[in-house]
C-alpha cells in the first residue's frame, strides 16, 4: 500500500461534522452539496493520482462525433480502488463513508462500486436518469458521492439535480439515453421540484440518492472535467431479483457470488464505515 503524505492521511481520518439541518435537508430532497469536504492539498494529490490511473485504463479511441449520446457524456472507468492502492485510500476513506452513512441514517455502509467520470472538452450532456435503475438492490438506502477533482463552473458541466424527485416512480425504468432525457425532462416540467444547477467549488462534494433524478450539462470548454464517484449502500443491503438486463450485469460485475435475499457481502463490497465499531 502506497504511503500517503502524513498531512493527507491525517486529513482523511478527520471526521466531517454534519449539522442536523443538513441531514434533514438530505432526508427531504435526497441530495446535498457540502463545501470543504476535501482541502486543497488532498484534492490536488488525488486529482493527480486518479488522472494518472484514468490515462492508463482509458481505451476510448473513437472520436466524439462518432459516439452515441452516452459515449459523448464521459469517459467512464470503474473500480479504480482495485487497480490503484493510492486511489483506494480515497475511496475507502472513513471521512467520506461516515458522511454517506449519516445522510442515509444507517449504522454503516458498504461500497457498491466506484467510477471515474471524465467529461472531455466538447463532451455532451449526461441525460436525465436515476442511477438505481441499474442496481439489483432491495432498498433505497443508496447514495453516491460526486467528487469533482477541480472547481467546476457551469461551463464544465457540473451535476444538476431535481430536488425531491426521488418521489417520482415514472421514468425509473429508463437507462441513460436520449429517451430518458426527453421523457424525464417532460415529466419534471409539470412538477414542483426545483431544478438545481450550480457550480462546484474546489473541495465541494455532492451526495444524492439512487432514485433521485439528475443530469449534467455539456462541457463547453477545451478542458477535461474530472470527477470521481463512490457509490455506497447500507451495510445490511440485500440483493433483489434483477428486473432488467443491466441489473443482471451489475449483479455479476459488482456483487459476484451474492445471492438473492441475502446481505451483499462479496469481496468487492467491503464495509467502509460501521458506527458500532467506533
Automatic annotation (TrEMBL):
Cofactor(s) listed: Fe(2+)
Superkingdom of source: Bacteria
Example GO molecular function: iron ion binding
Keywords: Dioxygenase, Oxidoreductase
The UniProt record lists the keyword Acetylation: no
Protein name: Phytanoyl-CoA dioxygenase
Organism: Limnovirga soli
Lineage of source species: Bacteria, Pseudomonadati, Bacteroidota, Chitinophagia, Chitinophagales
